[in-house]
Amino acid sequence: MNMRQRTFASLFHAMPLSMAIIFLNLSLFVPPVFSASTSQTEGDLLQQQTTLEQELSTLQEKLRRVQAELEALDTPTDASSTTEATKTALKQKEVTVLDEISVVSTRLLQAPRGTTRTTVKRNQIDNQPAKDFRESLESQPGIILRKRNGPRDYSIAIRGFGAKQAFGVQKIRIYEDGFDLTQSDGLSRLDLQDPWFMEAIDVERGASSAIHGNYALGGTVNFRTRRGRDINGVETFTSVGSYGYQKYGTAIGKEYKHMDAAVFVSHERGDGYQDHGDFTTTTVDANFRFRIDDQQTFFFKAANNDLNVLTPNRLTLGQFQANPKQAGPGTKANDRSRRDHRTIIGGRYTNQITPDTEVSLTGLYDNKDINQKFGITLDQEQPNWKTRADIRNVHNLFGMPLRSHAGIFFDYLEMETTNFRNLADGRGSKQNAINNQRGSIRSIGFRIREELDLTPQWTIAAGLGYERTHLSIDQVNFGFFSGTVTSNLNADRKFHNLAPDVSIEFHPNEHDRYWTRVSGGYGTPNFGNLTTTPTGLPGANNDLDDERSINLELGGQVRLHPRFNFQLIGFWNFFKDELINQAVGGGTGNFSTNADSSEYRGIELAAEWVPLDGLTLSGAYTYINAKFINYTDSILVGGVGTAVNRDGNKVPAVEPHVLNFRTAYDHRSGFGGWAEVSWIDDYFVNNANTLKAQSATVVNVNLHYAEDVEWGWVRLFKAYVQVDNLFDQTYMGSGAIVSDSTADASKQAFLLAPPLSVFGGITLGLF
């Protein structure tokens, strides 16, 4: 047995027997596939492929020429005029000693065909305050970010999915460097991701559960951190701004022989632009990539975020109009705040066992330690273990190239939570426990995907994902005031979901492509959905079903001119049993119901024009028409549950129109700047469609300078100044869905968006 065979065999000895058997069966009977969650964009990969092919062709041609010369010299001739000295001279002239190179098959690194995707590049993230991702992500069509409870805690909505809750990110799958950071209960939070650490952001739009599993209803976002080779030394970042904002960051990175290492640290603080909005957050992110040999690599990742933030209360419309910067009644008495910690540690081993076959194993530990004070005070520990095994392969089927992927996964999450009554004494003191929860989520499944090139220009892709989710929870409820045991709640639910994904793509050249796609998405209820009653207090809500969607889309991406790119997509989503989360008055919990049927349809448009070197004009527009088809809402009338028909109403928390336009210019001297205009339409915040968050037009401007210098230890200098909300528009940065059990005048739905703010900062590259 050779070294490669021994290495491959050791993978099976390192795994549990059951996983090894499944893994072996997949490798024998299912054509292995490349993970569609690869973080590289199609353009970059095609360029790499073209460059490698050109270099290889040049080397082959040179070798053929040298071989021909040598053969000619060794062949007898009648003239006998070629002397040994001439032969030697010719050989010395033509023969060149070449450095050893390793050629890796780029066919294994292609982005998935037939999907809608865009990439936010480094130049849209760099030379900015790096306080959140709103400006960079909203430059892409179909995407909206909404302010939640923290400096970077935004929700992300893609095609209307993902912003129907008062905190975090749901119905969107979040990755960082290909590691899955959406926990098994479907929740992601952007507290962990620091914009200054990032090289690019890849966004895949449309239901993608066949590729990415549970909760990929709207799509996925993959944050890519900068590599050590990009930093190449030490970088420091200092940024200050309005409302006491300060940020300090350090990056250390280097590529050395077979290792690329990058470590990032940042600390951020501010007073907040609303009363009771102070925050501090510290983030560490370390990435080590090892090339063991030409076939094997290992990627180690570790990250940690500590957050301490005071959170103002959501305001009613009347309170917002009277004073949008206020903290809201009862906020300071309850000492509303978050003290949260999150830690991840993960690794990914990859072995290219043949030029056309690759195996990867991924493991991740992800723990949330939550301490929050709202109407109810919550203490929660939530460790999550995730494992993946994937095989990717490229071969021919009847002479046509076929890219295949087969993968299995197992996730396990534990949760222990205690909710306390908030004494509202100005310190948020705990009084008595009102419930205690202990639960777990186990998920196991597989995914298969095939991409067949019918011709060099036509590709058909088909995939299928299956997942079994087992959610169990034991809850003991205590009297809200008495603290004595009142009831026990046990939930034990099993969900089985299948998601298809079929697409056809026509790609006549490396810049243009046209596709049509049918894909499925699914999302299972989480602990909070099943254990919160219409009153917002703990109790059984066991009748919830998992939500499912079918996404239809037709799109085109065209380079109409070497300086003009254009993308247009039409989509139509059919939703079954959509989970609608509604905030209940009094600052308690969020009640969830299923909307039997709803539809989302619209268009996405993006364009980029470079009329002159250095000058870029770009724009993104999204239109969404989302409405309930069959939905009977449940609200409290006089404390009694009452059914209300919502058929034909607009789905709340979905903006019908969103427009972003950006003009950017970067001169060769290092000076540059950009101006951005964003218009966001108004949208409903309740199922009855009687209360709206207002529309707004916001202008941001930025001036910056970047240059390589030779100032002793300083090799790079960057500086920027930026003005956000230039015309100081007062509008809602967030409108949560609020239950109609509360009168419109009392619905606490709104948070203020950032007012006029000025920021400035400096980056230094050292050594």
Helix-strand layout with pairing:
Layout: H1 3-14, H2 17-29, H3 42-74, H4 84-94, E1 116-120, H5 134-137, E2 143-147, E3 154-158, E4 173-176, E5 179-180, E6 198-205, H6 209-212, E7 219-225, H7 228-231, E8 233-241, E9 245-256, E10 259-270, E11 279-291, E12 296-310, H8 317-322, H9 331-334, E13 337-354, E14 357-373, E15 376-397, E16 400-422, E17 430-453, E18 458-478, E19 485-506, E20 513-523, H10 527-530, E21 547-561, E22 564-583, E23 590-612, E24 615-630, E25 632-637, E26 640-645, E27 657-666, E28 671-680, E29 683-684, E30 692-693, E31 696-711, E32 714-724, E33 732-735, E34 750-752, E35 757-766
Parallel strand pairs: 4-7
Antiparallel strand pairs: 1-6, 2-3, 4-5, 6-7, 8-9, 8-35, 9-10, 10-11, 11-12, 12-13, 13-14, 14-15, 15-16, 16-17, 17-18, 18-19, 19-20, 20-21, 21-22, 22-23, 23-24, 24-27, 25-26, 27-28, 28-31, 29-30, 31-32, 32-35, 33-34
Q: What does the model show?
A:
This protein is mainly beta. It has 3 domains: 1-29; 42-98; 222-433 and 443-766, TonB-dependent receptor, beta-barrel domain (Maltoporin, Chain A). Helices cover 12% and strands 53% of the residues. The protein is built from 10 helices and 35 strands. A hairpin with a 2-residue loop joins strand 15 (376-397) and strand 16 (400-422). Helix 3 (42-74) packs antiparallel against helix 4. Mean pLDDT is 87; it is low at 1-43 and 70-106.
